[in-house]
Amino acid sequence: MQNPGFWDNPQQAAHASQELTDLKEEIVYFERFWQAVQAAQSQLSTLVEIQQNAEKSEEEALRELEISLQENVNQLSKDLSLKEREVQFSGPYDKLAATLSVYSGAGGRDAADWAEMLLRMYVRFCEKRAWPVRGLHEHRDEEGGIKSATIEVSGKYVFGTLKHETGVHRLVRISPFDANKRRHTSFALIDVVPVLPKEAVEATDINPQDIEADTFRASGPGGQYVNRRESAVRIRHKPTGFVVECQSERLQGENKARAMAMLAAKLTALKEAEHKGEIAQLRGERKDVAWGNQIRSYVLHPYQIVKDHRTNVEVSNITAVLDGGIDPFIEAETKI
């Protein structure tokens, strides 16, 4: 970085600078981790020494020290687990931020409500990890719920963490919209793509003749300026059928640029996929959002359980899952 011509190539320089920052963060992490290990080791030595010479009157103090030591060890184990998971994120885009889209499928009003529940679940998951979430697009159903919505999630290893959530999610429950209280099955599709850096977006070759761009008024809350003008943009890529929308910006040109970046990410992910199974997963909107294609089932009646059909991981506390507790599923899928 101290070479005179280092900044002659801004893109390469920015990449090197980011790499340096990442390496420094790794060093700081392991230095702090090692200090914590040494502190726990010292604490353990003290505990053993006290136990060897302790009297009955000191048993309460010993128990408190044991509890403190166990809490420190548990925290170390948790930190190490997170670091081990990061090592498994070896994909070219795993470190990047991501956009997550949800689309309601078969199930009518229940499906729109289910899509909104899923969106909340992922927002809560991101909030627990302190990942900033920004809404890019929301198309609400006239009777309630959402037909489609897209959020952008910032942070490190966001795409690597969420990419396996792409697929059809199935809900079974007693419908709150059925006067006869019958059991209904609803479906929604989740699609996750990385937020590519500007140079990667510019490098993606998209033929202008292959896209159809429409403008429309932004729906939902967005301020009077947004709702008075056709600032929202919808882009359809004819060869693949990919559809992207953005309405988060005030100006139409900014929404179009962000939508084109989302399309570039989808096309890049499709190009990188090597196996037919991966391609089928990435091309989310072309898959039937209905029975037989689900990756995970959320059953609220007649019993309560969430089951991932790829890893066979099951969680009975469905309330915790819908409140963002999807870590068991993500951890199992990451280890495959």
UniProtKB/TrEMBL annotation:
NCBIfam families linked to this entry: prfB (TIGR00020)
Species lineage: Bacteria, Candidatus Terryibacteriota
Name by which UniProt lists this protein: Peptide chain release factor 2
Prokaryotic-type class I peptide chain release factors domain sequence ranges: 217-233
HAMAP family, per the entry: Rel_fac_2
Residues where N5-methylglutamine is found: 224
Keyword entries, A-Z: Coiled coil, Cytoplasm, Methylation, Protein biosynthesis
SUPFAM superfamilies: Release factor (SSF75620)
UniProt similarity note: Belongs to the prokaryotic/mitochondrial release factor family.
Any Gene Ontology CC annotation: cytoplasm
PTMs per UniProt: Methylated by PrmC. Methylation increases the termination efficiency of RF2.
Free-text function comment from the UniProt entry: Peptide chain release factor 2 directs the termination of translation in response to the peptide chain termination codons UGA and UAA.
Species, as recorded: Candidatus Terrybacteria bacterium RIFCSPHIGHO2_01_FULL_48_17
A Pfam family it matches: PCRF
Subcellular location: Cytoplasm
PROSITE patterns given in the database record: RF_PROK_I
Signal peptide: none
